[in-house]
Automatic annotation (TrEMBL):
Pfam families to which the protein is assigned, alphabetical: RCC1_2
RCC repeats: 158-216
Domain of life, source organism: Eukaryota
An example Gene Ontology molecular-function term: guanyl-nucleotide exchange factor activity
Name of this protein: Uncharacterized protein
GO-annotated cellular components: cytoplasm
InterPro entries in UniProt: Ran_GTPase-activating, RCC1/BLIP-II, Reg_chr_condens
Amino acid sequence: MTSFSTAGEFINSGEFVVDVACGTASTCVVTSTGRVFSSGAADFGINGSGMLVSSQVFRELEFFHGILSPSPLDVKRRIEEEQLQQLETLRKNMEEMGVDRSHFPLRPFEVAQDASEKMNCSEATAGLQPPRFSMNDPLQLPKVMCGTYHCGLLTPEGALWLWGRNNCLQLSRDKAVMASGGESNYPLLAEFFARADLPLESCALGACHSLAVASRSPYNQCVRAPPSKAQNGI
């Protein structure tokens, strides 16, 4: 019987995996701090490290340093800090106006049921700004994908990066290295969606085709097939 072993020795303290994808010959992982790792065969540059070196251990793709958004924990911390700043501003306004603070919450968001009847905070809250972040808004996380000969990463902003063998795709009409029939051992931006200002919500990689779903349009498909069978080819 095959035994399972932990493969997360490369994860730092306080860091966690937000997405993992397994392909035919490679595996990709993205962490909460925006670090991307891959392992497996390096044929066609599928490891994305810029070197055609296969690896049985996870190697970090340093290319993505600074590209991904802050981690969900950082966003959550910023939300909490902004809420506390708003609360402190409200306290100061009420002190300056001499408002009775006996019903004011000792801790954030703990308000007595009758507090609204016994204190008028309309003037004190007039200068408060609406929060830039909301805990109710879903936090977009980076996603990784693995196909047979190529891998991809979708950023929270909707930008798609692909690397590996892309003879089934045409990422750009202007750059020969990204044209159909090429191979790349480092990540390349799918410029079609960037030029069209189409942030993507999801993407999937197959053996000979990829499917991308944009937030403001139907699906866009990159496919290798006879002309009679290709649909919405890019």
